[in-house]
Every structure is written in C-alpha cells, then in structure tokens.
Amino acid sequence: MTVYFYGRCSADENFDKGSSIKTQIEKSKAYAVIHNLTIDKEITESISGTIKFYNRPMGLELMNDLKKGDHIICSALDRFSRNTLDLLQTIEKFKRLKVNLHFAEFGNVTSSDAMGSVFVKLLSVFAEFYSKQCSEKQIATKQRLIKENRFTGGKKKFGYDLDQNNYYVPCEKEQQIIREMQLMRKRGKSYQKVAEEITVSTRKKFPVSWVHKILMREGVSA
Q1: Tens-digit pLDDT profile for residues 84-131
Q2: Considering only CA atoms, which of 17, 28, 21, 19 is closest in space to residue 7?
Q3: Which terminus of the chain is less hemmed in, N or C, by CB atoms within 10 Å?
Q4: Residue 74: beta bridge partners?
C-alpha cells in the first residue's frame, strides 16, 4: 500500500498562501496523522484544475502507478479538480480500482455512503462554477484592456511600443513600415507582393498573413 499526496496549483495561484503547495502538504499531512496514514510520496504540479486529471503530466503518472489499496490525499476538492464530469468519472474509476481518494476537507470519498456521494457532487459543481466565474472575469478584464488600447499579454502589436502603464504608443520606426505597406496596397499591389517587398527592405520576414492582419487592423480595406 502506498499513500500519495497530490497537490496542484495554477500559475496564478503559486504565490497565494491559501492555495500554495506548502499549505496543501501541511493540511494533508495533518489529515494523514489523524487517520493513521503516512504519506509516502508527494506529487505536485502547476496546471489548471479544469484540465482532465488523466491529461495532466503528473496526474497520468499517478494513474499509471496506482494499485489496489493505495491512498491519495488531497487538501481540498478544488486542488484536485474543477471539472465536474472529470472529477466524478475519476472517483468512479478509483472505486473500481479499490483506490482510496481522500480530501482533507471531508474524508474518503471513494468509500463514502450515499450522503457523501451527494456532497462530492455538490462540491464539484461549486468548484466548476468558481472556475467559470474566474474565467469570465478574465475575459471581461481583457476586453476592457483592449478597449482602453492597453497591452493584454503575449506579443505586442507591431507598430507600437508600451508606456509605463502598458498603454500602446506609436513606434515611429514601425509606423513608417506600416505606411509603406498602406501605400503599396493603395497602388494595387497584392498582399503577397507587399510581404515580399517589405521583407526585402527591412531584412525581416513578413508573412503574408501578418501583413494582412496589420493592414486590416490599421483600417486598410481588402
């Protein structure tokens, strides 16, 4: 019999004391002591809880190592999963394998009674609801930043630099290249031809798709 600790946090939660791996381990070890268990192996990963357990690198490794009678201790349900369907399917799979899944919040869910099963389903629904709510907030924030002409992450827009508050400000050197592209299009040159000539003049690769995207963004009609 092997007792595993499974801990998870997303990139945004790495520095959140309430969700940190260290806090999760402490809670799980305290739970293990109370239930006369000793954690033999600690498995942790930084990944979204909405990703199916079997599709996570460490989740897959754990699934392949499990054997009958093993125990998995997780500090909280949302640390294990925020995907309702995947959570319930994983719990059923553990039941068939005779593997014990514990949440420090409320105990062993693979050997629980009918009330315990209902409790797990209710908690998983709330966990997924919270995840979707966070996602909606992120989308709303990104849309607001776009309206304010501010950087939203990833690669910045060609033709612009960022000021100290992450607002886009024109980059004259790149704006000159954009004006050359616009002039070529007004003279009837194809996007392919514009891309080729700009690539030669700047000595920097400008794919046709990139040229098209930049010109559409800057208000040049197809």
Answers
A1: 888 888 988 998 999 999 999 888 888 766 656 676 777 677 777 777
A2: 21
A3: C
A4: 103
173: nearest Cα among 185, 154, 158, 183 = 158
Q: 3 has which bridge partners?
A: 71
Q: Looking at residue 45, what is its pLDDT?
A: 93
Instruction: Give phi and psi for 6, each to the nearest 5.
Output: -115, 125
Residue 218: φ, ψ to 5°:
-85, 5
For 199-222, write each residue's pLDDT tens digit. Answer: 999 999 999 999 999 999 887 655
Looking at residue 94, its amino acid is F
Q: Are 76 and 105 in contact (CB under 8 A)?
A: yes
Q: CB–CB of 18/76 below 8 Å?
A: no
For the chain, which domains are there? Answer: 3-139 (3.40.50.1390), 160-217 (no CATH)
Residue 116 has a pLDDT of 61
15, with CB counted inside 10 A (0-12, 13-18, 19+), is exposed
